[in-house]
Amino acid sequence: MRIFIFFACVIVPFVASAQRPTDTVYFNANEDVISNKEAAAYYRVITKRAADGSFDFTQYQKDGTWLTSHASNTINQPIYDGLQTWYYTTGKPHEERTFVHGLRKQILVYYPNGNLSLKLTYKGNFSPPLVMYQALPDGKALVENGQGTGLLFSIVNTQNALVDSAAQSYTLTGKYIDGVKEGTWTGKDTRGYTVEEQYEHDKFKNGTTITPSGKKHNYTNVLVIPDFKSKRGKIDTFIIAHLQNPADTLNLWHRYDTDKHISIAYKIAANGDITGAYGYLSNGSTVELKLTRKLPRIEPGTVRGIKTAFFMPASNWLGYPQPRRNYPPFQVDPDLSGHYKGHQ
Length: 344
Known about the structure:
The protein has helices spanning 165-168, 232-241, 246-256; strands spanning 24-27, 33-34, 42-49, 55-61, 66-73, 78-80, 82-87, 93-100, 103-110, 116-121, 130-135, 141-144, 147-154, 170-177, 180-189, 194-200, 203-210, 216-219, 223-224, 263-268, 274-280, 286-288, 301-303, 306-308, 310-316, 331-332, 340-341. By secondary structure, it is mainly beta. It has a domain at 232-299. The two termini are 19 Å apart.
């Protein structure tokens, strides 16, 4: 979990700026534009406009971090160009991204002490990154010019996790050749399970998870989501049809959600039981959806061959959520010897 520390002498307060009203735009956690600044998860301020219609802007987060960027199009859906920099609350650079007409070209990630943690380069906007450099917090390089024995690490934010955090929190070590994973990568997850995976030119081939008791689980897909068998819409329909207090829920929905939709979310346990249905309003609040009947059981999902609980941020009542537009920077933890997580 990230620890948020506020330094009044460094951080720009999370309040309206002195810019013109049209130069400041507020967004909720779902990245929708809202007018209520008190409910905003972050906001953007245009700081400079160019004759060609492009502009510079600063984005202020509630956690005290911020980014600066150059873009074209609109402040709501910017097309990034040039250098974009995310900052720690201390004011030091956290991540520097280079864009060319909206396409990512390079990402540099820094530790809080200022040392370079990671360098990624991209051949295309949707291609996986090449790991060209990776180092420990003290500056010791693990990968240089795409060659070396590197670390692959992931920690799941339990507030936003799709799957059980223990299943997705892992550390693997293996070879990078020309910036891509090759051969055998081994390590453990936080459940104490041993993991061994085979890669060929960065493509995952197969793997084996070994439990502390010695039981082996072979897999050819790292992540298998629960098997809905085209039932995703049916589950949403079932929830709506069996609301214990439909009138109260719908009144909340119409009163507070200016976009006239509510996202249904629920948990699928490792045995396939569906529990904990909630409605997420666009203002960030939640509504517990109490039902008159128990939800049906489905085939559970797996992570590295092990049946695992999934948290499903389900479809909207009026369509599906748009893809995320605001990607946070990679997170580095100096106490974890150069491990990182992020938006690969």
